[in-house]
Amino acid sequence: MPKTTFTIKGMHCDACTGPLGQELKKVVGVKQALVNYGTEQAVVDHDGRASFQDFQTVVQHLGYHAFSHDAQDNYHDIRLIETRQLHRLRLRLVIAVLFTLALLLLSFPELFTFVPTFLISSYILLLLTLPIQFYAALDFYKGLWYSLQRKTVDKNTFVALGISILFLYSLLATFFPLVFFSSVSAYSLSYVIVSLIITLVLFGKYLEAVVQRHTSDSLRALLKLQPPLATVLRHGKQLEVPLTEVVVGDILLVKAGQPLPVDGLVMQGSSLVDASKVIGTSSLVEKSKGMQVVGGSINKEHTFHIQATAVGKDTLLSRMISSVREAQSHKTPLQLFADNFVRILMPLLLMLSIVTFLVWLLFGPSPAFFFACFSFVTLLLLAGSSALSLATPTAVMVATGKAAQHGILLKGGNTIEALRQIDTVIFDKSGTLTQGKPTVTDIIAFQGDEKTVLKFAALAEKRSKHPLAQAILTYAQQHDIAIPDSHSSQMHAGKGIVAKYLGKKVAVGNRQLMHEQSIDITPLEARLQSMESAGKTLLIVGVNTVAVGVLGFVDAPNAYARSVVQALQRLGKQVVLITGDHTGTAQATATDLQITQVIANVLPQDRAAHIRTLQAQGRVVALVGDGITDAAALKQADVGIVLGTGMDLMTETGQVLLIKNDLRDVVIAIDLSMQTVKKIKQNISGALLYTVVGVPVAAGILYPFTGFLLQPLIAAGAMALSSLLVVLNSLSIKRYKPRI
Questions:
Q1: 3-class DSSP assignment, residue 294
Q2: How many domains does the chain have?
Q3: Is the distance from CB of 698 to CB of 409 less than 8 angstroms?
Q4: Using omega within 30 degrees of 0 as the cis cutoff, is the peptide bond preceding 696 cis?
Q5: Taking a C-beta distance cutoff of 8 angstroms, is the pair 436, 561 a contact?
Q6: Domain of 256: which CATH number?
Q7: How many CB atoms lie within 10 A of CB 434?
Q8: Which residues are catalytic?
């Protein structure tokens, strides 16, 4: 089913996501629409009848801005809107600060004796409060109006109601003081208090906006790697064209210091290329004619020409950006819990605020109306925190960006939680824990000589691309063995190959293939087991019904295999080796790498069944494989981790792609997910503690026993501080350092 992901700007709080999602679902063909306030992303699943323009119309009708992720220049448009919003917020804050300072001067004449006495008047205080109340606080009132239209309750509802009550209280005190209040002292500071509250909330909102922009720094860094223009050679001329006009096959000129616009092949010249910001490699690599280069890499040395092999959405950089955006757009189970909790909590807190007002009005000390108003406002302000709504998405945004910096792409935000939960990591042996470049170490002839055994093996494997076949052919060429063509050949997946040559049947493969071809190897079993116990992979060569020899191979362990296994074990993960090799060979490799559990003699198509068996035992399993032969098993695993075999495979067979093909990134992905979930739980726990402890105190539960009553100013500060602390705690993930 087609899926469209786009950015939405202008949302006021988490309550905006519900109506947006409901309206998007009404578009023809839409099956599901998820809107994420924390990441400002929407993900719409549809049947293809709707387009982004249809979704954009709906979003704009509701008063927001929608931006497609396909358009090259949208990044700049989004940044422009963000900058304008920040500037507007800063201006409102400056206005609030200036008029609040004036109010402070006039509200405390005993401290500021230089203030002329004719200015000390409640009417002048009112005039100074109006710009703060109806300009600086305008966004809160807009949010209240939207929430009333949609019959929802959100942060703006609480803030707008709180400051409106205080302002109304001040108006009543100004024009009808003796009707509602027994003395001027009860209301003399109300104007400055409401102004201070608005200023404090705006200051917190401004800091939150500034800090929250940094949660997507990693994604912005990737976007900046896409140059808007490219130099194309057409008709013998150098033309600067928009990147969107470059097509596959174009020859591009890339000068020293410039980023590569697209993926391609070097056609002329050579240079050092820095791909660290794209795929996380830390060293410069020399690229010369015929070598592949990745868009977004930086040409560090000489001018060269490349031919475009992938452009637009098909480049690795574009697919990385799409992957990060998609991961940030999905709501994790923890976020769904927080969102549902907030939707239930907000109306309850509003009802509790009303009950608090009535209790203080009916049973509170004199002046009861004063205490009722202030307790009501205090509770509204304290309950208006958006900390719980920001707890998960901010952490997910930072973590997915941080993972991308290491060349780790996560499919879906829930992958972070899934990675953290796994307790068993299964590794494929060949090409994963080993280098994937086996070499021939032994040739033993049971019939004839070694050259004959090698010739039969080579002619059978001549057309195969299997790593063992390539090792045989390389060895034969090194020893000047002429390799004749077989008349026909047939692959037996996971077992070997059977070829016909000069009327003879030549079988090259494992024990199972020999058994199927009626070749008796029982007398040779002791010899075979001796080689396997030395860690060698075997291919038996049979001609007709006779085993004529055996070839032994060694595939050296990956340079980081042992340290990766040890690191995972330190993280409390059970490491399992799965392979099609015989038990002896597999056990030798496992012993060398200090792996305690081995599953051997497993055909590729049977690996999913073994994973199901482990899952039935209650294990949460991650499989690390190549994404091709392990496709079914990767789907069966709770988390499929694909080692650098291509972006497209991840969408079908795995949730994690390690584009550097670096085994250490398995540890980094799991460790980073554990650290991220830890931060998310800290955020949620802190937000819940803030609510559980703060709400009763704001309602005045301590007043009958201690005489303590929380003031609106403190509540406003706590509201701003709680959200800011959540964002700062999430940003600390940017300081993550790999522990391997």
A1: coil
A2: 3
A3: no
A4: no
A5: no
A6: 2.70.150.10
A7: 22
A8: 428
